[in-house]
Amino acid sequence: MRKNWKYLLIGLSAFYLATVFTSCTSIKDEPYFKDIPDSTRARLVKDAPYQDPLIQPNDILSVIIITIDPTTSVPVNQASIMPVSASSTASPSAPSMVSGLLVDKNGNITLPILGTVKVGGLTTAQAKVAVKTEADKYYKETDVQVRYVNFSVTVIGEVTHPSTFVVPNERVSVLDAIGMAGDLTIYGRRENVMVIRDINGKKEVSRLNLNSSDIFQSPYFYLRQNDVVYVQPNKSKAIQADAEQTRIITIAASILTGLFLYLRLAPKN
What is the CATH number of the domain that holds 88? Predict the structure, then answer.
């Protein structure tokens, strides 16, 4: 009987050791911008020139016209609070319904009273001038506000919270997007972050190195509407996956070994 318990304890000990040693993982410190020295002295890093994004078909805009008498511009401004189906937008992860003016395939928006205004290929600042030119035909001393409603970027891959993010500010950098996604996981390749951009119906791909401060000079540092940021997994991810599979197999084998020894050596009635 004592021998039986001895073999059972051997099996359980093997199970315990397999659990402990196969569940241990090493976590390396992966800082950004390794080329910036660790000192208290400030270092000037040249920034890439920012270019305002251009309005494209399927973008949704908020257009508000401000006049001396607010009641006179109500019919025009109401168009910006009309719901638009997300199925008409370029981003499949956008909310089901948003309020705004949909830019049609010809780059036009249609406003009550003002009629059709061409905004495609313009920045929001240029679109403001185009709308104001039409508004000044009907109102005096107007001011116009134009902004994106569905300016979105997508972050996928080895980040904490992969998702599509709708941002209120069109000046968003790749670091902002990664921050919204909860930062890279320990398995994300910081030296090889991919930015996928749609330009005139074609996909343009660029790779950024978060380990280098040269990223600030990249034309892809600032994102555009519907850009996709993809963080690739490193080799440690594959090793960890293999280790996890090995751990499960080892634990299962240890349990079966313990049960086999117990049943094999248990006294029979």
Answer: 3.30.1950.10
